[in-house]
Amino acid sequence: MPIPFPTPFLSRLRRHAAALLCAVRPRHPPVGEAELVEKLAPIAPGRFLGREQLDAQIRAADTRYAGRSMLVSGAGGSVGAELCRQLLARRPERLVLYELNELALYNIETELDLLAGHGTDIVPILGSVGDERTIRRTLREHAIDVVFHAAAYKHVPLVEANPLAGLANNVLGTATLAREAQEAGVERFILVSSDKAVRPTNVMGASKRLAELVVQDLAARSFSTVFAMVRFGNVLGSSGSVVPLFRDQIARGGPVTLTHPQVSRYFMTVQEAVGLVLQAGSFARGGEVFVLDMGEPVPIARLARQMVEASGRTVRDAANPGGDIEIRVTGLRPGEKLHEELLIGAGFLTTAHGKIFAAREACLSEIEVAAALRALRAAVEEGDVAAARAVIARWVEGYTPPQQASEGS
Q1: Which active-site residues does the annotation give?
Q2: In a domain, 307, yes or no
Q3: Nearest CA among 139, 148, 177 for reference residue 84
Q4: CB distance 2 to 273 below 8 Å
């Protein structure tokens, strides 16, 4: 008697089959949509940087990773997946994909299996960075040499609305992974951070700065594992970023939503971001916060106009009331800043690469970090949002709660 398959399984099977058919059979949308999609699809992110792309200048030494055992946390995310692709090209012995999202893990494992051939062992691990036992077992069983920690909750409004989840994942998860990496004898641990960690006005940015402080503390006390951090701006085209949002809004006929006419951001391509991470991993000595020279920040209003024009449409405004796409100002979201920064301290150090520098950043003592983590764990366990916010207000330099930030802007 045949075994009946559950309905959810059959639904997933049908979706996979449909996806495979779409991959080999061209899609034929309505005429107007097809024309717009054709114009929108080949957008090269680098054209919106307002500067020369640097990914060709940020090549990490292949010998650092060849034949080694690597782990990438958040392997299914935009940066994590590109890290995996570029690491695979450097022929490591083993590449461990550590990811909480099942579908994201399935997708990146499937892609890498096709690329790897028989040269690199691809190991998918489904788990959270806060799962101490799974982390410990994974690091030891696979004899990990280098950890690239890219797993994080990064969407500002979502983390602002769910601060305990964001702080637990981004801070306590980092502390767990970093501590276990040190105890397992991992050679290098590289934290992927964000420019939002600098004088943050939101929980996401504050959580990334706390994560940096945790790693800085371990770096100061470690004699075996090299700990370093990489801080960069928005990655063009990454999930939840402004480019795919604008692209979808333009495809629907607008409006393109802009939170403030003066808002600006630092941008980089995912290739630049990953090149920076790999370079940091190759010449870090311990405790550095590496930053890429990304030129001037990009005004988001200009980016929105460029994307509308790149689609073959025109902006509808007072000067051109007959235009195709309106750019509508919606107001800053909770915790959002007008302008981001890359440095907390007053200066930086040069490195072996002309486009990468190391920020001079203050650290907390071992006792202070332990106190911050202890208070944060208690707040998370008790579900006390006010106590959690008090922790970041106490320990994150320059943190301004959203209400005060909006009043001062």
Answers
A1: 196
A2: no
A3: 148
A4: no
Task: Report the DSSP beta bridge partners of residue 227.
Answer: 189
Is position 189 within any domain?
A: yes
Answer yes or no: is 260 within a domain: no
- Fill in the amino acid letter for 246: F
Q: Tell me the residue range of the domain where 396 lies.
A: 55-235+266-295+346-408
In sequence order, the β-bridge partners of residue 298 are 265
Residue 361 confidence (pLDDT): 78
In a domain, 36, yes or no: no
Q: At what angle do helices 203-221 and 366-382 cross, to 10 degrees?
A: 140
d(CA 169, CA 155): 13
pTM of the complete model: 0.77
Structure tokens at 298: 């990009």
In the chain, the number of structural domains is 1
- Name the DSSP class of 331: -
DSSP summary character for residue 202: S
**Of the candidates 396, 370, 397, 375, the residue with the CA atom closest to the CA atom of residue 386:** 375
Contacts 24+ apart (CB under 8 A), 259-262: 259/300, 259/329, 259/330, 259/331, 259/332, 259/333, 259/336, 260/329, 260/331, 260/332, 260/338, 261/301, 261/329, 262/299, 262/301, 262/338
Report in angstroms the alpha-carbon separations of 368 from 80, 199, 200, 365, 401. 31, 19, 20, 5, 21
The alpha helices in 90-155, defined as continuous H runs, are 102-116, 132-141
Q: Which helix (H) or strand (E) holds 37?
A: helix 31-40
- Cα 353 → chain centroid: 22
3-state secondary structure of 320: strand
Q: Of how many residues is the chain composed? A: 409
pLDDT, mean of each 10-residue run, the chain (409 residues):
44 44 38 40 50 52 80 95 92 96 97 85 96 97 97 92 97 98 96 90 95 96 92 71 82 88 80 80 84 76 86 87 89 72 55 69 92 98 96 91 53
